[in-house]
Amino acid sequence: MTQVERKLPFPFKKIAVAIAFSPRLEAILAESKRLQDIFNSQMIFIHVGEKNLQQEQYLKHLIHRFGLEHSGNLLLWEEGDPVEIILEKCKEHDIDLIVAGAMEKESLLKYFIGSIARKICRRAKCSVLMLREPSILSKKVLKIVVEGSDHPKTVHTIETALYIAKMAGSLDINIVQESDVSKMALIRSENLGDTETEKQREKVFKEENEKLEDILKCTDCGNIKVNIERMDGKPGYVISSYAREQKADLLMLNSPDTKLNFLDRVFPHDIEYALANLPCDLMIVHSRVEE
Amino acid sequence: MNHNDLINLLLCIGIMLLTGRLFGEFFRKLKMPLVVGELVAGILLGPSLLGRYFPILDEIVFTTKGNVGLVLNGITTISVVMLLFVAGMEVELSVIRQQGKTAFKTSLIGLIIPLVLGFFVGKYFYAFLGESATQNNLAFSLFMGTAMAISALPVIARTLMDLNLFKTKIGMIIITAAMFDDLIGWILFSVVLGMINHAGNPYGFVYTLAYTLLYAILMLSLGRVVINKSLPWAKRNLSWPGGILAVSLGFAFLGAAFTEKIGIHAIFGAFIVGIAFGDSVHINEKTRDIIQQFVNNIFAPLFFVSIGFKVNFIQNFDIQIVTIVLALAIISKLLGAILGGLWGGLSMKESIAVGFGMNARGAMAILLGTLALEAKLISPQLFVGLVVMAVVTSIMAGPMLQYLITGEMKVGVKLGEIIKISDREKETESKD
Q1: Residue A94, min C-alpha distance to chain B (Å)
Q2: Contact with chain B for residue A277, Cβ under 8 A
């Protein structure tokens, strides 16, 4: 294993922020300042595009205005393909978290072709935070919804959620266990009676609950209250809908096991349900231990 | 249809449902798939046994002739369309897409080897299967390949659940591989049936393949969007569950009618619509359950019992054909899974377990065989061989998997217990 592969998703020592001269630039920088203060991180701002004196001065002014002139912070101004450059720079600087602004929903065509933020999400080798509505004004307490699926990566996602909750002063996190019960219907099609199906379902749920309890037992939750919710349906879609209904501020999902491509949008990968229609800010937690 | 025909038809359907269920439940108690009992009920009622001693019953009630036979045939055709719709709902494209390298390699080789071996035997050793060379040999060879490659997802899922393997690595590989096999298997079989329709046309194969793929692509892209938009509307505006049942089966029959019209068999239309429905986020467990219960408890028994009316299982039982088909099915699936599993990084024992898991052909192979028999692609003897193979492979999957996995599972349980005990001890110590 290389040095990078051994790293846990947190602490977020180095945060890269993808910036563009859009109307949301100021809000993104305000959010960056909050992240810098919460996680005590080194910030690396990456802008891909032709260098322009006027824009450069404006950007420096904003960095100064938002108090981001920390000695370790960097401003990288590169030219080329935005996604490639951002991913390359993140690898080069050993980044822990990439932050990018993203629209809640994109046109069907753009979604299938892929916007910059979403492309980064699908390909990044570190955690990615997509800010749906970056704001200049400070948010109060983060309401976090986190994936609790039966997957080896979940332990790191939950640990990262607890880390963020502690650092950001949240009082609780909501873990959603998605039960893909379509397979239960498959078994039932072999003419399982009601009692038998219920027994099988309970067996599966019990196993999943025990695994989650084991994770929580081994994790330092501190004063954070952990709420667990079990929901049936299509994985990815269910948690995304739940985050929307609950008006969550941050949805945290496991990173995909493989790089996602066009076909994963046609036959949606679990994460694609959230990417297609961002319910709130979205963090894809890249669990680098498993690789 | 006259007064007497109607009475005979109603009698027939009533007796089919009752005997099918009784025998099904009996065999289920013996830990065998329900379909085995339904088949036995059909054999008992049909020309193989009851018809032999009471020919009058065979002639007017449990018949494939006359008005009653015609209506019964219509009912079983509808049943096949619905069964394929349900089979399609079980295939989850996102699960196939998200499979890891191990599952992909196992699925691929586990599909290719039985397909190639089946094709090879069909192409060069057809005489051993009781077939003559004058038939559409390419279609027959492709059919043999498909029959060897197909698998029975529900039987497999149930076996894995019984053995507590459903959520394990091996379990997921088996499920994914079975879904992949079914998807490719039914596409191929539709091409085979299309080829029979276009027999004599030199471009028949290309024409059918192109139409099949085009329909599949269109239905799984545009069709899926339409379905995804229709379902929330149906939920809001139609009564539940009747509305959803009508919408889903309505789409299935429309799809079936369309594919039949363009020269691909109706089953393919229903199968692809099933995939599109099963993939929708708006289909929850209850909806799936209602559709499956409706099809599997009413229409599936009618279809499987009626098989016994079409073929005399005793007269057409040929030990040579049965042995060859059974051996070919088991060897090809095992070989495919072993090679695929080893390539994908599984151990020999795990690969064999995957092979036996995927070996269950169940209702799907029987369905495939019935359609081939109706299309006059195979002889009744080969059909009987396929039915026996489907039953035997389904029955042996559970015990074989248990035998192969139990050792490893026990170690797993013991390790888990040790960890839990040590955790408990730590907790007690800390409390002290």
Answers
A1: 27
A2: no
